[in-house]
Design brief:
Layout (H helix, E strand, L loop, with lengths): L5 H11 L5 H10 L5 E5 L5 H7 L5 E5 L6 H10 L3 E4 L6 H7 L9 H4 L13 E6 L3 H16 L10 E7 H8 L11 H9 E10 L6 H7 L7 E9 L13 H11 L7 H8 L4 H6 L13 H13 L7 H17 L1
Parallel strand pairs: 1-2, 1-4, 2-3, 4-5
Antiparallel strand pairs: 5-7, 6-7
């Protein structure tokens, strides 16, 4: 057995998913009380896809670019009229979005054609399933944290629900607390906590997915200890999280900027943006030794709402830095 890299593991994972009872369990969670569009990224030979179709879901769209897998997927397509193959990799959506000009949103059509466009507060346009097992998958997860506050890309269709199979390390990072898990408490932890309702549906052992020869070879790898089937649902009150809902992207930038170094002290850092603002923060219960990494997500949100409501905010160097960041994003798309 060759040494397994994350990409190969992902392919093996998908390829043998149907050989174990877990496929039916995943399909059951994914399609429970649901009869709309289901999207599946990197379905492999379509064994989980078949389990999904057998639940009676109205439409399943899969995204696969590996030509070697098309013959088996086409067998499903010939059997089920509600099965659709898109020969694209959904995990490449961040790269597409980065290079796509703002006025060419029709590029998304090949991914989301026919999907109902729901308002953010009204309805769920689709459910998406993916196994997140490599760097590209993690990049896709982080991309969601940018797309959601902008209500762009897949979230331009509404509050789609995400069913993700995560490694133990990624799930722990998503659930980390500043005091108990400081080393795993990251900027992404803060945004996942505030932007999504997070529900762990089931915990799977790696042995449930891998035949014993592969499992014995892979079991020493930390990320293969367990998988977690997690449902992420965008919070319904997302536009009301910040005092001014036009500042959601500014809040995203605030968290990314200040969690680059979680051990940085809050008051000295904030006084670089607005001089002599320390006493206001002390009134909120902070002291000169409070670090950004000591604040839980709700406290980070409260800090930003305070900061962005101060009269000096619009002229602060932070706001200027955000505007430069935003203009760079726009120029990169031109």
């Amino acid at each position: 057995i060759p040494i397994l890299n994350p990409h190969v593991l992902n392919q093996i994972n998908q390829a043998i998913l149907g050989a174990f009872p877990s496929k039916d369990s995943i399909a059951s969670y994914l399609c429970e009380d649901w009869n709309g569009y289901v999207l599946e990224a990197n379905p492999g030979p379509g064994l989980l896809s078949k389990a999904i179709l057998e639940t009676g879901v109205s439409h399943l769209r899969v995204f696969e670019k590996n030509v070697d897998l098309f013959p088996t997927l086409e067998i499903l397509s010939n059997t089920y009229s509600n099965f659709e193959i898109i020969k694209e990799n959904l995990m490449l959506l961040p790269s597409l979005d980065a290079r796509m000009p703002y006025d060419e949103s029709n590029e998304y059509e090949k991914f989301f054609k026919g999907i109902p466009n729901c308002s953010y507060s009204n309805g769920v346009p689709f459910r998406l399933f993916s196994i997140i097992s490599n760097k590209r998958g993690i990049k896709f997860l982080r991309y969601l944290l940018t797309a959601l506050p902008a209500q762009s890309s897949l979230f331009s269709y509404g509050r789609c629900e995400l069913f993700l199979m995560l490694s133990k390390a990624e799930y722990q990072c998503m659930q980390a607390e500043p005091k108990e898990n400081f080393s795993m408490y990251r900027w992404s932890t803060v945004l996942y906590s505030l932007f999504f309702e997070i529900k762990c549906l089931k915990k799977f052992s790696s042995e449930s997915f891998f035949p014993s020869p592969v499992y014995r070879k892979a079991k020493k790898m930390r990320d293969l200890q367990h998988f977690y089937l997690v449902k992420l649902t965008p919070v319904s009150d997302l536009p009301e999280l910040v005092t001014d809902n036009n500042k959601l992207l500014e809040f995203y930038y605030f968290v990314r900027n200040h969690f680059g170094k979680r051990t940085a002290f809050v008051i000295p850092t904030m006084e670089k943006w607005i001089p002599f603002c320390g006493p206001r923060l002390i009134k909120e219960g902070m002291n000169v030794f409070t670090r950004f990494g000591d604040l839980n997500p709700k406290q980070i949100l409260m800090l930003f709402n305070q900061f962005s409501s101060w009269p000096e905010y619009e002229d602060s160097s932070f706001h200027t830095a955000f505007q430069k960041y935003n203009k760079k994003l726009a120029s990169d798309k031109d």
